[in-house]
Amino acid sequence: MTIRFTASRRRFLGQTTALASATMLSPLSSTATAMAASANDRPALGLIGAGRMGHNHMRFAKGMCDLVAVCDVDSNHRQKAIDKIFDGDAKNAKGFVDYRKVLDMDEVDVVYIATPDHWHAKILIEAMRAGKDVYCEKPLTLTIDEGKKVRQVEKETGRIVQVGTMQRSYLDLFVKAVAMAGDGRLGRITRATAAIGGGGGSGPIPEHDVPQWLDWNQWLGPAPETPFRWTPDPKLGPDDWVIGKTNCHQTFRSWLDYSGGSMTDWGAHHVDISMWAFRQAGQSDTVVSVGGESKFPVPYQDGYPTRKDQYHTASSFSMTATMSDGTELVINSGGRNGVLLEGTKGRIFVSRGDLTGKPVEDLQDDPLPADAIAKTYKGLPTPYSEHKNHWANFFHCTRERVEPISDVTSHLRAIDLCHLANISARFDRPMRWDGDKEEIVGDDAANALLSREYRKGFEIQG
């Protein structure tokens, strides 16, 4: 008999070890069929945020789930997703403007959150409380205080949360680099350098009438009320998506009300890999201080931009964090995008395109142990590569009720460092961090930025 994958079944699986064991996959299946599910077994997914990221990344989940609901405040995004995701197989999906309608659907098993960053924590918390497992794009939070709330609710609800830091599923590159660190090929790591790129200025962007296809109030959500700004691309028609200079959609990462800029965008990837390597090598990932140099496209005063009519997240920076054992993690806007790991026995560089360095060359004559990648990947199945494997990992973990490869706790350690680096840059002074109290030492003004005010009606409850 085929059992339909529903929310109630997920809860039952989480409570019944015998049934979970009966469906357990082999630790390292190398075939795609090991993760395949029949149409009747596929979880029903609700997509919240159907813009470029949400739309494009859903293609990696094809064949593993059924898309039954699409929510977006932009009617163009929403309809395009329903018409085209899964090659039209989602045409019967329900469309919504309000994400809460998706969370209220009993038939929705899992939720994919691909909204702008300022919405992530609120929707994630409410989705977990609604009994949904969640794949959420990075970063999970806009502030360190939001991370505390996410951790608490995850613990209370027992939901499975996969963070969209898909580099953790790049088996031949990032996972291999971390496995090398864990196998001692670098010796003691003394420094990691995460080159993540910077931002840029825009000049003043004028206020613009809100397009008829956009619910601007719902797009803003928890963020402060502010005019819609847009310099449209003259080559596009009035009903096209927002492309050009704007405080919406593709350029939201250039505004502090919605994002931490490149620091929390690419930093969520490369800082995460650096700290993962530290842990795998048996070293500390506990931050004690951060400081450095940065530049912004507008002047700052008391930690805030003096102009809010144009892009204002950091354009360039070089910030150094020190771990409790003295290891340094440098976050640079310059240099080739990727992670450089330097140790007492050698150094390696890893990016989305390559893995290089003498310790890598030495693998030809002295390969890693056969189980090195498996141990690094928590012994979870690896039927695919890269993005597709990251989705397969998520669905496997929802079935087996085990921690996914991109877990909440380790992600928050990395993204909290990125938040701290941003705060240090905004005040242009070094910060000392008390990890036990989760506060900046002796700096009330900086500590005020550990949280944010939410617009009335969009608060995070509890």
UniProtKB/TrEMBL annotation:
<feature type="domain" description="Gfo/Idh/MocA-like oxidoreductase bacterial type C-terminal">
    <location>
        <begin position="205"/>
        <end position="459"/>
    </location>
</feature>
<dbReference type="InterPro" id="IPR036291">
    <property type="entry name" value="NAD(P)-bd_dom_sf"/>
</dbReference>
<dbReference type="InterPro" id="IPR050463">
    <property type="entry name" value="Gfo/Idh/MocA_oxidrdct_glycsds"/>
</dbReference>
<protein>
    <submittedName>
        <fullName>Predicted dehydrogenase</fullName>
    </submittedName>
</protein>
<feature type="domain" description="Gfo/Idh/MocA-like oxidoreductase N-terminal">
    <location>
        <begin position="46"/>
        <end position="164"/>
    </location>
</feature>
<dbReference type="InterPro" id="IPR006311">
    <property type="entry name" value="TAT_signal"/>
</dbReference>
<feature type="signal peptide">
    <location>
        <begin position="1"/>
        <end position="36"/>
    </location>
</feature>
<dbReference type="Pfam" id="PF19051">
    <property type="entry name" value="GFO_IDH_MocA_C2"/>
</dbReference>
<dbReference type="InterPro" id="IPR000683">
    <property type="entry name" value="Gfo/Idh/MocA-like_OxRdtase_N"/>
</dbReference>
<dbReference type="InterPro" id="IPR043906">
    <property type="entry name" value="Gfo/Idh/MocA_OxRdtase_bact_C"/>
</dbReference>
<dbReference type="Pfam" id="PF01408">
    <property type="entry name" value="GFO_IDH_MocA"/>
</dbReference>
<keyword id="KW-0732">Signal</keyword>
